[in-house]
Amino acid sequence: MKNTLKDLFIKNKLTPLFSLFVLFGLLVLAQNSASAQGRGRGNAGGAGRGAGNPSVNRPSNPNVDFGQGNASRRSNGRSDRGLETAETRSNGRSSEGLERARLGRENARRAEREVRDNPQAAELLRTNANDLRQSYQSALANNPDLKFGQFVAANMLARNLGSRYPNVTTAAILDGLANGDSIGRTLRNSGVSASEAKDAERQVKKTIQEIKNRQ
Question: For the chain, which terminus, N or C, has the lower number of CB atoms within 10 Å?
């Protein structure tokens, strides 16, 4: 009986204490479960916000260009050099084209002025002012230093000597002048004797002067 009473006493003493331990354990488990669920929702929300907002996924390093400039790095700068080379070549072609256009305009103005100031030239060459202007402009494109008097003389000498010296042509004389030779040297290179070349050149200059005096 004593043992039974003692067991009941112990049982009655331990049951409330045991109940407290069980209750405390349940509270701890509930708190841990709530915390885990909160972290799960936080991570899911963060992931969702990150996926929905591209700025969240961008790295903090301001030097990262997201692919911009990668081509240059991967090709060791070849892509940049290629662009620079293409640009340089293009600019070169553009500059040359602009220079040719400028010279063309200058030659056109010069030819216009010379033909206007020398109206006798068309008469000497038996042509009209428009054709003479275009011919002189074309000659200037090949030799910018060509004087109008030289151009007129080359045409007249070719007409006067060409029947006896087939190599004496306007183009041949103009080419000689472009190469730095005088008219006399060019005529001699074409087979004309020195004396005849000198006489022919003198006669042409005299004719040009006579026509000028009549104007």
Answer: N
